[in-house]
Amino acid sequence: MGPLAALPTPPGVYTPQHDTDLIARVMEKEHLDADSCVLDLCTGSGALAVRAAARGARVTAVDISRRALATAWCNALLAGQRITVRRGDLVSAVPGRRYDLVVSNPPYVPAPAPRPPSRGSARAWDAGPDGRLFVDRICDTSAGVLKRGGVLLLVHSALCGTAPTLDRLNAAGLDATVVDRATVPFGPVLRERRSWLHSRGMLRDRHEDQEELVVVRAVRR
């Protein structure tokens, strides 16, 4: 398949970027075949869902945004793949289902507003003052949709704190480790929020211009 960033994404849908590429690279190491069931939470453009489907897996893509789900479905069609799309709030969209692999590139950018926006482009990245509104919920609920021995792959910025992610996943019944990292330049949103991030102690230097991305792999016990 071609570069993930080449997938068509309309305004308001997250365009695949460094974080998408990083988790996609890790996902390539997971065993997937026609018997594998994959759940893509916060699918956005459908980049990860389409990649998993291309390897033969049965894929369900979940997002709260109708526009994102339409984009994911169209991108799968353009790639000659079939995915199932479900609109809903994270795992509540797939009650009673169990998966071999759950992947997620959720909103994780720290934002001054206490709650994430309900519309607009920022809905794809804003995640509350500590950036953990969605990350924490995925950590707390993913075990409930994983088969025993199933794997969660989760990508987010180290600005959110990596240790809290590992701690929450371990407490929820998963064995979690960081399996990949990348240092990337700030995008326009983080550049605009540098002073605010520094005032909250999330940046050591108000002129900092790079962030570390981490991919966490967690196996259900």
Describe the protein in words.
Belongs to the eukaryotic/archaeal PrmC-related family. Residues 19-108 form the Methyltransferase small domain. The protein is an alpha/beta fold and 221 residues long. It has one domain (36-220): 3-Layer(aba) Sandwich (Rossmann fold), CATH 3.40.50. It has seven helices and seven strands. The chain has helices at residues 18-27, 47-54, 66-78, 133-141, 162-171, 188-192, 194-199, and strands at residues 37-41, 58-63, 84-87, 99-104, 146-157, 174-185, 210-220. Strands 3-2-1-4-5-7-6 form a seven-stranded mixed β-sheet, sandwiched between helices. Helix 1 (18-27) packs parallel to helix 2 (47-54) and helix 4 runs parallel beside helix 5 (162-171). The longest helix has 13 residues, at 66-78. The mean pLDDT is 96.
Task: Jot down its keywords.
Rossmann fold, 7 helices, 7 strands, 28% helix, 25% strand, 221 residues, alpha/beta
